[in-house]
Amino acid sequence: MKNTLNLLEKVISFLLENKIKHNHTKFSSGIVILDVWYNEKFYVFHFESNHIGISEVDNNVAFDSKADKIIEDEKLFENELISIFKPIY
Q1: Given phi > 0 = left and psi -120 to 50 = alpha, else beta, which region is 19?
Q2: DSSP characters for 6-42?
Q3: What is the pLDDT of residues 13-56, one digit of tens each?
């Protein structure tokens, strides 16, 4: 997947416009972790150079650095955003 940082900017703009609580951290490796709290759920997005990882963290899942889903296609990523943020996305 190309342009994951452009997708990150698009997601952050969407979150700001919709006043959705979030926080992001950029690491020296170039990876950006985006934490999102939405609809009483907590999501972690991993923006890496060639893919985006997504995890939903809840009380039943131990938090770790590996994403639940790895997405390497921009259209599939957009579909995932639609499923998380419906009906506002």
Answers
A1: left
A2: HHHHHHHHHHHHTT-EEEEEE-TTS-EEEEEEETTEE
A3: 999 999 999 999 999 999 999 999 999 999 999 999 999 999 99
For range 61-89, the mean pLDDT: 88
Two tokens, residue 44? 């972690």
Residue 14, beta-bridge partner list? none
Spatial separation of the C-alpha atoms in residues 14 and 72, rounded to whole Å: 21
Residues ≥6 apart with Cβ < 8 Å to 9: none
Q: Cα–Cα distance between 84 and 88 in angstroms, integer?
A: 10
Rg (CA), the chain: 12
pLDDT at 25: 97
Residue pair 38/30 in contact by the 8 Å Cβ criterion = no
Judged by DSSP in three states, 44 sits in strand
